[in-house]
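Form 12-C: Joint structure prediction
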Amino acid sequence: MSRSDEMILLAVWKLQDDAYGASVLKYLQERTSEDWSIAGVYAPLKRLTSLGLLRSFTGLPTHERGGRRKRMYNLTVPGYRSLKRAQAEYESMWIGLPTLKLAT
Amino acid sequence: MDWSAHLEIGHVIKPPFIPRFLLGSCIHPSDRDEVLGDLDEVFAELIPENGKHRANTWYWYQMLRSAPWFLIQSFAWNVVMLKNYLKLTLRTLAKQKLQGAINIAGLSLGIALCVLIAFFVRDETSYEKFHEGYENIKEVQTWYFNPDGSTKHKIPFVGAPVAEAALLEIPGITEAARARIGRSYFRIGSSVFQERMLYVDPTFLSIFNFPLISGDAQSAFTQRNHIILSESASLQLFGSLETIGSAVEVRLGGEYREYEVSAIAKNPPGNTKFQFDAMVLIDPWIETSYPAAIGSFGYNIVQTYVVTRPDALLDNINKNLSSLYALHNETPFDYNLEREDFLGQNLPMTYQAIPLQSVYLSRQSKAVYSLILGAIALGILLLACINFMTMSIGRSLFRSREVGVRKVVGATRSQLIGQFWGEAFLLTIISAIIGVVIAWQALPYFNGLTEKNLAFELISQWPLVASIILIVILTGLIAGSYPSFVLSSFRPVDVLKSRVRISGSNFYTRSLVALQFTLSVSLIIMTLIMQRQMNTIQERDLGFDSDQVVLVTLNGLDGTGTANQFKQLLEGESSVDGITLAGSALGSRFINGLSWADEGQQLHIDVLSVDHAFMGEMKIEIVEGRDFDVTRDTNASRVVLVNQALVDEFSIEDPVGKQLPVFPGDDSPTIIGVTPNFNYSSLHELVGPLMITVDTDWKHEFIYVKLAPGDHRASIDLLSAAWKNVSQDIPFQFQFLDDRIEQAYSADLRWGRIVNLGSGFAIFLALLGLIGLTSLSVQSRRKEIGIRKTMGASDGRIIGLLIRDFASLIVIGSLLAVPLSYLLADQWLSNFAFQMDVEWTIYFVAASVVLIASVLTITAQSFRTVRANPIEALRSE
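Section 2 - Result
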């Protein structure tokens, strides 16, 4: 699982019942310094869905979108597990690090 | 692909059109809505924060970064869909095996036939086009006119000096050559061969493109006794191609002369009329065979070809040729005064130049045959295409449920259209490939049928390949159009609830069926007319007895002497009933004649030279006067028999005892008897005025041997043995008169066979189409039939109901076929002087045949459904 996959999963989790292409894109753009493209969001969303970490369903169209439908995403149990595992691994890497003598 | 709706967003500012459109085209339809919606949403929020300009830039950036990925995605998706469609097509084919097979078989047969006929027509129109600069080569012909200025007939021969005179006197003519095709005997040692000889001028080789494989065109005719052999002749005579310098004896003017091989030419291709085994100079031939024709414009004995400058106008050349004729002709008219009358309105005859490439097609109305054949090919292809369409429509109607399910699951209309069209194209492409393979395999048989030597060349014939591709595209387009547009437009709920009623009786399919019947009835009528005409010709009383008559060719031997010797040798043989002599073979194209000018009119009579026994042996009636009589006619040149046509043409009253109105003065022979108009010439021509003479100055060319009934092979052996004692120079050559007469119509018979084949195909295809349509109509009316049966209708009545549906179409089709086939048949019949009467019964018979075949087809096809227990039909929902 790459870092961008992780970010996407976290975004979907955070957005809860309102996770779809545009909201994920906006959320990531606000919180990260990276430039996100719509394909950069959709590609992981689709892949993670086919891996079973996400589940997708068609959402109701809203007026803001000119009546266009949404594809909504939910985190699944395997998705949640893999996020927790990633977090645990990540944290274990941080534990016990010596004080760094900065080279400046 | 309707995205215009995306532009009408409820917000004030729309995203820029161009990147939105580009991105939209990259995204697969299944994802397009949500992706564009997402972008629109983000874009709308960006505007109040960052302004329109920044938002636009952002959108462009999004498009450029995202388009590639979406493009790859949608491509991968399409491949999956294609696989899916293909699988579906194959499955439906497998499910409807019979209909699918009929569908493909019909179209591939149609395409195969078209390919073959295209080969044929191409060959017919390719005659003489391989000569370099063929556009500038013209054949000079002699045209005869009637007093009213209309053309009487055209012959491809002119006088011996015309070529030279035209070259010298007519500006615009740069080269000229004479030619004459004939048969001649070759002798090497004691073996004699008969070969096709082309007598030519040396310039012939520079005008026409007959390449030499050894030897040099410049020096090939430096000696009067040089001869050029074709490859095959060289192999036949010497068994080798290294034959330059070899000696061969050639029979010329009644005796063998020494010739020396100077070059070997490639065998002439099939699409030229100059089919030769050997070429020699023409001058020695004229000098020995027709000494009187040397330097004379009066004997039309050679073919003449001129090369004109590309900028020379044919009209001017022809004007000059007319003047040339007037200038050199020894008839007592002042043609100079009338020279301005172009095309010799007042000339009895004139010379005319015809472009070489059109000579072949204009002769024997070959163009008409190509036209008929082309029409048949197009008709059959049209039939096959129509079948393909009606069957495709028929098959697809049973798939309306599939369409409904697909739509419910989410297939867009464009996907359905694409699917049906894709299927139609797949089938047409398969059919085209099978068709081409069939054509390739059937070419040898087709060559046998048409007596041609066509080669299978597809690559070099790009117009043909292009038209096959065009046929595939058009058929696929039309065949797929109905299912893709009509079926895809149904509301899925209606389809699934079986609320949509489809039957085969919409205007589209009905008019196609009517057209099919028009075509097949026309072809049947054509077939019937051709057959009847050929029967008319074959059964026609020719006016003489051609049974068991063997013709022995004299080939320039002294007729009377040889015949007498032959006669003596065969005297007392029980297998020979009689022997007689004549200058021509009866019943085929006639060449001997007498022409003279009289008061501005060119007159012509045919001349048949015979011996005294001829009329009696051939059982030719004499209606007035008497037959020739050896004892009474002491001076053979003083008496003639004439036919009724001559009496009528010259309006002679009480002809017997009168002088023949041919030569002025007392020289003219006396008419001693009149024969009816027996068909001495081919039935393509009218019986013309004929003079029959026993004057031996008119040469005899054939010995007519009348065989007694019995074993003909033994009789022929006997003749052959006797011949060896008469002439060692020339091998025994014979032909039955009946066979020879039949040969004159071999082309017509051949065409009859081809048209038979074509109409057989057409009927077959039309019936196939009917099967498809009937099954469709029966299937869609199963419930109706069931209800009718429970209400007490009999099987016969129900079948009658179904037949009535189609009967009107058949009647309309037949009515349309009458004028169409009449036009074509009229064209063909105009080739014959003796025409059958086209009776209305023929049309009736053709229409009835089709009607009966259709009724049988409908009955057979619907029988099972009609006989079925009505409960089955009514219960199924």
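Section 3 - Comments
Chain B touches chain A at residues 6, 8-11, 31, 33-42, 44-45, 61-62, 65-70 (CB under 8 Å). Confidence is low (pLDDT under 50) at residues 1-11, 331-346 of chain B.
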